[in-house]
Every structure is written in C-alpha cells, then in structure tokens.
C-alpha cells in the first residue's frame, strides 16, 4: 500500500512538472536557469531539467560572446527543447580584426626588407664570379698583348702591337671599374636593406600590445544560505 502511494505521488509530481532540454554552444558556456547554474550535460550536450510550470528565465554566456537571455513558459507535462549558439560580441570581433591587421603590419614591416636583403645578397654572389672572370680575362689579354709588343721588331709591327696593348689596357681598366661599381652598389643595397630590417624589428617591438578586456556578465557563483550561521555566502556550483 505504501509503495503504491509513493509511486502514485511520484507520477503525480512528474505530471505537475515541465521538462526543459537546453543545449548551448560553445559547450563551456555558463548556463543558468532562474539564476541557478547548471553544467552537467547529457546526451548530445543537452542539459535536462525538470521545472515547475510557469515562466523561467534562461541565461547563457561565455567570454567573448554576447549574453543570451530568454524567458520561456513551461506547462505541466510539456517538454521544451532549446538549442542556442552564442554570437561573438561586436567588441571582440573588432578586437580580432585589429589584432589581425596589426599582425599583417608586423609581418610586412619585417618581411619586405628581410626578403630584399636575401635577394640582394643572392644576386651579389650569383654575379660575383662572372664579374671577376671579366677582370681576369682582361688581365690575361693585357699580358698577351704586352708580350707581343715586347717581341715586336719592325716599326709597323711595333705600332700595331702597341695599339693593341693600349686597347687591352683600357679594357682592363673598364673591367676593374665595373667590378668595383658592382661590389659597391651591391654592398650598399645589402647594407641599406639590412639596416631597414633592424629598424623594422625595433619598430615592431614598440607596437602597442592589443588586449581584449570585458566584464564578466555571468558566473557560476551563486548566493546560498549557510545552514550553520544562516548568513548568505557565495557558492561555486560545478554541476546540477
């Protein structure tokens, strides 16, 4: 008889309650119903609650997301299912955009002169051997023409070999001058780009750090009456 009464009372109590299936994204969002925090989730991430008939207030919030608040009316025996994906705050979206733009600026400031330094250095070493060979070939030609001139006997031969020697000497001077200009210009380009890289690194180090701060709109803290001294205190709730 007693068991029958208990079962009947249990069934009657369940009929007098409504049921709420609540799922919020992201999963680590703080969820409260009527000010009471809930974190225990069941299948598919739903929070299952048995609530008294009437109007209930749902709140959900996570850092960087907008606060979600909704009133829901639950009737006895009804089951209401709610799924909500929180949206990012405008402030957080703006912060992410500013952060992204600053990152692009930092990378660009450092990358452009750094790539220029690498390019100028590679160009120098790729052309250096060819320029040195030109000087060497011109020098060899001077020695050949000098020997021919020194071994000349007739006046006509002396005149011809002397002209050839002078021509090769001029060609050697031009080759040396071109080589010196090539080295000087290359060193200037490499030095300037390396200096700009150093300036860029210093400039980037002085960039103002972009931070995102926001107020805590919802927490798992709950006011609860202390049974020992009957005083209100804050309690951290981890589960239903």
Attribute tags:
four-stranded antiparallel sheet, rod-shaped, disordered N terminus, alpha+beta, disordered C terminus, 9 strands, 3 helices, 2 domains, Immunoglobulin-like
Give a description of the structure.
The chain is α+β, with helices and mostly antiparallel strands and 240 residues long. It has helices at 2-15, 90-150, 155-205; strands spanning 18-25, 30-33, 36-38, 47-51, 54-61, 68-74, 79-85, 221-225, 232-236. The strands form 3 sheets. Strands 3-2-5-6 form a 4-stranded antiparallel beta sheet, with no helix packed on it. β5 (54-61) and β6 (68-74) form a beta hairpin.
* Main pleated sheet: 4 strands, antiparallel
Number of domains: 2
Order of helices and strands: HEEEEEEEHHEE
Adjacency order of strands in the biggest sheet: 3-2-5-6
Instruction: Determine Rg (CA atoms, Å).
Output: 42 Å
Structural class: alpha+beta
Number of helices: 3
Oligomer: single chain
Strand content range: 15-25%
Q: Tally of extended strands?
A: 9
Low-confidence stretches: 2-9, 223-240
Q: Indicate the percent of residues in helices.
A: 40-55%
The end-to-end distance, rounded to whole angstroms, is 33 Å
Shape: rod-shaped
Mean pLDDT score, rounded? 85
């Amino acid at each position: 008889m007693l068991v029958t009464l208990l079962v009947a009372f249990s069934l009657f109590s369940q009929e007098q309650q409504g049921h709420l299936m609540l799922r919020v994204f992201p999963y680590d969002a703080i969820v409260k119903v009527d000010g009471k925090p809930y974190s225990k989730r069941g299948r598919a991430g739903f929070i299952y609650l048995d609530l008294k008939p009437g109007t209930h207030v749902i709140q959900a919030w996570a850092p960087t997301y907008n606060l979600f608040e909704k009133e829901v009316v639950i009737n006895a025996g009804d089951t209401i299912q709610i799924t909500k994906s929180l949206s990012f705050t405008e402030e957080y979206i703006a912060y992410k955009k500013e952060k992204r733009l600053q990152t692009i600026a930092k990378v660009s400031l450092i990358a452009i002169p750094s790539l220029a330094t690498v390019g100028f250095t590679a160009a120098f070493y790729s052309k250096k051997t060819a320029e040195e060979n030109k000087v060497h070939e011109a020098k060899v030609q001077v020695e050949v023409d000098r020997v021919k001139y020194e071994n000349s006997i007739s006046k006509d031969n002396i005149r011809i070999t002397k002209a050839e020697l002078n021509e090769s000497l001029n060609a050697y001077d031009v080759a040396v001058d071109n080589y010196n200009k090539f080295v000087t210009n290359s060193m200037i380009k490499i030095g300037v780009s390396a200096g700009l890289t150093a300036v860029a690194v210093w400039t980037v180090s002085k960039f103002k750090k972009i931070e995102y701060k926001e107020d805590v709109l919802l927490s798992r803290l709950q006011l609860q009456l202390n049974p020992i001294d009957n005083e209100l205190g804050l309690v951290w709730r981890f589960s239903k």
